[in-house]
Amino acid sequence: MKWDLLLMSIMYVFAGTMHFVKPKAYVKIIPKFLPKRRTLNLVAGAFEILLGLGLLFQDTRSYAAILIISMLTVFFLIHFNMLRGEKFSLGIPIWVLLLRIPLQFVLIWWAYLYI
To answer: How far is CA 26 from CA 6, 19, 37, 85, 92, in A?
Structure first.
């Protein structure tokens, strides 16, 4: 197994786990117009864990990569929502929030390599 694939898997499993460990932080950044934000947070975390694990197996790797790309595309909504101001940014500096947008494209490209 390639080291970068293992790293990507660990990254998504860790990120998904954090949805359960620190749910309040994630719920705060979900736009208020979305219903059942707590449930959305848990569902997103579960999907990140499952997709991260799916990357580890040849039979599920391409499906996991496609769904990760879809998930990352949806997450642009969160990133742009956080740029709306201090109330939504959790105190994260604006330059970090802006840097996350091109980083999202890098993550999409990385997942695309495994389709």
So the answer is: 25, 6, 9, 16, 13
Where do the structural domains in the chain lie, given as residue ranges?
3-112
Contact of 19 with 45, CB cutoff 8 Å = yes
User: Cα(62)–Cα(68) distance, rounded to whole angstroms?
Assistant: 10
Which among 38, 42, 39, 45 is positioned nearest to 13, based on CA atoms? 45
For 11, the 3-state DSSP assignment is helix
**Side-chain half-sphere CA neighbours of 61 within 13 A:** 16
Q: Which two tokens stand for residue 9?
A: 């898997």
Query: Which amino acid is residue 103, in one-letter code?
Result: L
How far apart CA 3 and CA 22 sit, in angstroms, is: 28
Answer whether 37's CB lies under 8 Å from 30's CB. Answer: yes
pLDDT tens column, 58-80: 999 999 999 999 999 999 988 88
